Amino acid sequence: MGKFDPIKMSELVKVEDPDSEGGLTLFFQENKLKIKIIDGKLVSEMS
Fold first, then answer.
1. 30-33 long-range CB contacts below 8 Å, 24 or more apart?
2. Cα–Cα distance between 18 and 8 in angstroms, integer?
3. Do residues 32 and 46 lie in contact, with contact meaning Cβ atoms separated by under 8 Å?
4. How would DSSP label each residue in the chain?
5. What's the pLDDT at 20?
6. 7/27 Cα distance (integer angstroms)
7. Low-confidence residues in the chain, pLDDT < 50
8. What's the CA gap between 30 and 8, in Å, rounded?
9. Cβ(11)–Cβ(29) under 8 Å?
10. What is the reported pLDDT for 1?
11. Quick check: 24 and 32 in contact, CB under 8 A?
């Protein structure tokens, strides 16, 4: 779960459901996490 270390203990500031791509975007203090389903699998991308 090292992929999610940057958002550990970060405050969740905003949620877009659905986002512009039809997924879910969680906005934290300094990062955002995009979650969507592709080919039946849950895919996440942090930026």
1. 30/6, 31/6, 31/7, 33/4, 33/7
2. 23
3. yes
4. -GGGGGGTTPPEEEEESS-TTSSEEEEESS-EEEEEEETTEEEEEE-
5. 86
6. 10
7. none
8. 11
9. yes
10. 62
11. no
